[in-house]
Amino acid sequence: MSTRERKLKFLSDFRLDIRTGVAKMILQYGEGWLTDEQLDDLVRDEIANWKRSQRMNRENRARAKALHEARRAELREKVQYFSRTMQCNCDLDNWQPEPSTGHSFVCRIHKAAVTP
Q1: Alpha carbon of 88 to those of 1, 37, 82, 108, 115: distances in Å?
Q2: Which helix (H) or strand (E) holds 26?
Q3: How many domains does the chain contain in total?
Q4: Which pLDDT band, with edges at 50, 70 and 90, does 41 fall under?
Q5: Domain range holding 9?
Q6: What distance, in Å, lies between the first and last C-alpha atoms of the chain?
Q7: Closest Cα partner for 99 from 91, 88, 110, 108?
Q8: 11 vs 15: CA distance, rounded Å
Q9: What is the pLDDT of residue 64?
Q10: Cβ–Cβ < 8 Å for 17, 23
Q11: What is the pLDDT of residues 72-116, one digit of tens each?
């Protein structure tokens, strides 16, 4: 398989979007009208787009994790505050404690901490 064939296979296997003009031209006229330089540009652009989306996914995961940790810390502070002023009723119904608060769904401390 030649380099040109590999690049064309890469473009067809990857995700060359059907909405782009290039993809429409390839579907209509085949790949023969593309020069090697144009093919190199298309492959380079697809790889750059893929790398950009991977980088954004990593950054978004880090942001989501930081936000989640901040919300959990805020929830723990609320539970500590309400634990000083309210009495826990988790043991009365044998419900499993919720990992976020350490109290069951029916507990008044859990309800007060989760309610905005």
Answers
A1: 70, 71, 9, 7, 16
A2: helix 21-29
A3: 1
A4: confident
A5: 3-114
A6: 62
A7: 110
A8: 7
A9: 95
A10: yes
A11: 889 889 888 888 888 887 776 677 778 888 888 788 888 888 887
